[in-house]
Amino acid sequence: MSSLVQSVDWLAVAPPVIAAVVALVVLVADLFLEDSRKSLLGWVSVAGLAASALMLLPLVDGDRSTFCLTGHADVCSYTADRFTLIIQLLVLGGALLAALLSVTALGSTDRGLPEGEFWFLLLSSAAGAALLPASRDLATLVVALEVASLPAFALVGLRHGDRKSSEAALKFFLSSVTATAVSLMGISFVYASTGTLYLTQVADRIAGVDGQLHTLAQTGVVLTLVGFAFKTAAVPFHFWVPDTYVGAPLPIAAYLSVVGKAVGFSGLILVTVVALPSYADVWGPALAALAALTMTVGNVGALRQQATRAYSAVRLLAWSSVGQAGYLLVPVAAAAYSDDAQRSIGSTVAYALMYGAVNLGAFAVAALVGRTRTLNRVADYRGLYASNPLTALLLAFFLLCLAGLPPGIIGLFAKVTVFSAAVDAGLGWLAVVMAVNVVIALFYYLQWTALLFRVPEGSPDRHRAPAPLTAAIALTAVAGVVLSGAPQLVLRFADTGLF
Amino acid sequence: MIDINESVMQFLLAFVVVGPLLGAAAALLPAPPGLKGKSPGQAVLRHGVTVTGAVLAAAIVLALGFDHDQPSKMQATTDISWIPALDVRIHLGIDGISLPLLVLTALLTFLCALYSYFKMPAGPSPKAFVALLLVLESGTLATFAVLDLLLFFLAFETVLIPMYFLIARWGGEDRSRAAWKFILYTLLGSVVMLLGLLLIGIRAGTFDMVALATDNGRSLTTSVQVIAVLAIGIGLAVKTPMWPLHSWLPDAHTAAPTVGSVLLAGVLLKMGTYGFVRILLPVAPDGFRTFAPCLAAFAVVGIIYGSLACLALAKQGAKGDLKRLIAYSSVGHMGFVLLGIATMTPTGVNGALFANIAHGLITGLLFFLVGGVKDRTGTTDLDTLAEETGAALYGKAPRLGGLLAFAAVASLGLPGLAGFWGEMLALFGAFEPAADLSRPAFLTFMAIAAFGTLLTAAYMLIVVRRVCMGAAPQEAPKLTDVRTYEFAAWTPLVALTVVAGLWPRALLGLTDPAVQQLLAGGTR
Questions:
Q1: Is B84 within 8 Å of A495 when comparing Cβ atoms?
Q2: Best interface-test mutation with A: which of B18, B151, B164, B195 has the largest number of A CBs within 10 A?
Q3: What is the interface pTM, i.e. ipTM, of the complex?
Q4: Which residues contact A341 (CB under 8 A, 6 or more apart)?
Q5: Given A408, A495, B68, B400, which residue has the most CB atoms within 10 angstroms?
Q6: How many contiguous H segments (helices) and E segments (strands) does chain A have?
């Protein structure tokens, strides 16, 4: 009789495990460290995230699976294939950059952020986010999703005594929990009709569900999708985004904008393309409509931001991230119509990598500017070029990448892959909607960019940027510039099988 | 003409495209010791002249090394894979169609750099100005040199940001709104164009223009061609600009600084018409045939509309702005170019390409001259300039007045000057359009367009009368006549206008074989 104990491939699960272990270490160490040496915790966390990102390297050469059913070696809960590794790289890299931003944010003592808890929560969330793309059964998927998002609520509300912060956390929490409950219910329906939680088995069995259970299965599919749509901040589940971003500490906003999105998208991709390909005629049109709505609402929201309002820079990035979520949804929707779903998914992944790098870069510059201009209004960026030429050029580069115009070549080609996925799938109307949105988005990105080079009001205040912040900006800048020269580095994912 | 090694030619073409980009990056860095010049501003402006000069030299050598016996053959080609995932290749090459435009761009940018070295437009630091000018040059040259649809799109988009900043930062009155109008119109057009390009690339399985042109639309169904031509055509028509998508142009020209206007009219507009000839004609002939009568109709309306707008602006008391007037005249001239292309005949397309170059030379010169007038009198408003009797430029600054009159008559298409041949050939083409186009319709278009030339002559002569002639009051201060650097910047344009007018074969000999080949099924 074969053993009932599943074998564990520790190397394959190393990236999320290391993040989780370091999280616990930090939490315990916090109890024994004096106040003056608490900054050590930050560096331990940064090192932990870097280590878990490095552990992706040995996994590159081939697909590994673990937690497989004894007896069915091909039915596994955890798979480290190319898709997993790329999303894990995005998630861990994003968390690492957010951590670098936080080191300085926590360093300035007046913010009142408890260090130990902060790092613990950030690392736990990162661990969950890294687990999610690897999970191949619905239970692991939901667990990973919750591990990723529950600490995020706490992070958003962590600023003690800040009303806006707690309000944002509450909004985020309530809407998220509702969505989770909905998707859990959906998953239970799917389980009831197919008798399995493994994604590949769901895919096989759901097409042949007993006629009586047909409605149940359909309801289950819809409810599951609704839950995952929330995580991507797709319309109509987007309303929490701007308030949350403004209320949260800036590095956390950066983290949510990239890692939060990556989590939502990888979940959505796994549920739609891997588990429910036979329901493509249901989720395809739904996602296409969602994509069109999301990008329009996000971009119009960003367009309406007034440059002089408090926190308008963060608010603008928040709304624009909703818009970008819409672009990310386009290839997922196209996967429903296309003969080669993997290619479409690759476009989303490539776009997400580009977006991750440049959006974090923009947030890093916002964090730098926010150190002297605490209100972080868009108007505060006026004349940045005069006081800080390199930072201004980089922010301009990041914004133009997001807009998708040269010199942001990678942004342009990432948009081209998304467009081509849509055109290839015959979603011409969606491509046209996206084209209009690209123009709307250009307006506010370019307005901000132009502001950087205006004559500054008052005397420019120069001061040295702290090392971790410089490192974060430099990392994202190098990524953006290298990718602009060699877009193939990320775009090749749009050309090969990921699963 | 002279025999140059193929790999040297390849290098030259690559240098022409990449050189300005490197120059732009270098312009942002502090000047190295020994090249500091009198001031940082002067050093960087000199850097601009050097780089554009080097690019012009390279372009001229390219033109000399070009095998003039086989202008229909792609020469100096480079073909390297860049983004295999999207099937984007760095495919460069020139033939008889792109070579003249390449040289024109290099020449006009050099002249602009030279002009700005002595007469920097009012605005922030020259450093950014030079960098943007060079990026603009790189984007335009790349548009004419690339042979890959997506690379063409990239080059097409590259010019947007520099031109936006040139207008918004160094422009005149109302520049911010004009710059926005320019970039939003063009971007909206070009994203629609991207969709069309993708449709062609995906359905035909390649983005390579040479392969697509050789295929001559055989692997594309007619419906795909129709949709693609519509999408790409809109993008190109905004850039050209075709009536009724032209309304960004007058504002942009009025607000732009002199060199911005020169480049905008001289080369940026050509990117649109070049796209029509290089992409739409050979790649999707069936789709193009469907829209050819519409295109011709819009072109003819543009000719009449542009001329009438100019007439209205030139009228006394209309508060017409000279720059705006020349911008509207561009709408008319580009109408002839589009009419020529729409005929789908070698005669018409050759005429269109000739008119392209002629318009670049003449309108570039006109904008330079109007810029000169503005420097001296402080205004481009016709009524302020002319007052009651006329500005009497002949009396106050005879050489400037003479040049202005020369450019104006060249623009109205006086035989013997460059403006004549292109428009005449375009009309000839319309007289006998391609076999499956409706001849009566094109005959009508031809008649209306011919009437347009009369209107053009009318408003140009009114402008000459009001600006150059008039009674010069005795006590009126004399204006500075043409300065040396202005002579240096303008003479090449004057000379080329005369040469192209007297010896059109030089240009037609280049374009004609290439056009014949293109219409018959691609380049070799």
A1: yes
A2: B195
A3: 0.90
A4: A273, A277, A335
A5: A408
A6: 20, 2
Beta bridge partners, B94, equal B75
Partners of A417 on chain B (C-beta within 8 Å) are 85-86
Contact A1, A24 (CB under 8 A): no
Q: Does pTM top 0.80 for this prediction?
A: yes
Q: In sequence order, which residues have a C-beta less than 8 Å from that of residue A45 and are 6 or more positions away?
A: A22, A26, A99, A119, A122, A123
With vertex at residue A147, the alpha carbon angle to CA A144 and CA A149, rounded to the nearest 5 degrees, is: 105
Lookup: tokens for B484: 């040396």
CB contact residues (below 8 A), chain A span 381-440, against chain B: 393, 400, 405-407, 409, 412-413, 416-417, 419-420, 423-424, 428, 431-432, 435-436, 438-439
Q: CA angle, corner A352, sides to A273 and A479, nearest 5?
A: 145
Work out how many CB contacts closer than 8 A connect A with B.
92
Q: Give the C-alpha separation, B367 to B322, whole Å.
A: 9
Burial A17-38 (b: 16+ CB within 10 A, else e): bbbbebbebbbebbeebeeeeb
Q: What is the DSSP string of A250-301?
A: HHHHHHIIIIIHHHHHHHHHIIIIII-GGGHHHHHHHHHHHHHHHHHHHHHH
Domain definitions of chain B by residue range: 291-516
| DSSP 8-class letter at B83 | E
Residue of B nearest to A406 (CA): B158
Please classify residue A73 by burial: count the beta carbons closer than 10 Å to its beta carbon, then call 0-12 exposed, 13-18 middle and 19+ buried: exposed
Q: Amino acid letter at A322?
A: V
pLDDT along chain B (524 residues), means of 10: 85 92 89 78 89 94 90 88 87 92 94 90 86 94 93 92 91 87 90 92 90 87 92 93 90 91 91 92 91 94 94 85 91 93 93 93 93 86 78 82 91 89 91 89 93 92 86 70 87 93 90 88 57
Is the pLDDT score of A203 beyond 50? yes
Distance CA A27, CA B387 (A): 83
Q: Which of A424, A439, A495 sits opposite B85 (nearest CB)?
A: A495
pLDDT in tens, A231-254: 666 777 777 777 778 878 888 889
- CA dist list (Å): B381 to A301, A409, B142, B320: 41, 41, 36, 6
Record: contact B161-A400, CB cut-off 8 A: yes
How far apart CA B48 and CA A28 sit, in angstroms, is: 61
The H or E element containing residue A486 is none
- Check whether A1 has a pLDDT greater than 50: no
φ/ψ bin of B297: left (φ > 0), alpha (ψ from -120 to 50), beta (otherwise): alpha
Which amino acid is located at B163 in the chain? Answer: M
Query: By mean pLDDT, which of A334-348, A469-483, B132-146 is the weakest?
Result: A334-348
Are B86 and A420 in contact (CB < 8 Å)? Answer: yes
Would you say A98 and A360 are in contact if contact means Cβ atoms under 8 Å apart? yes
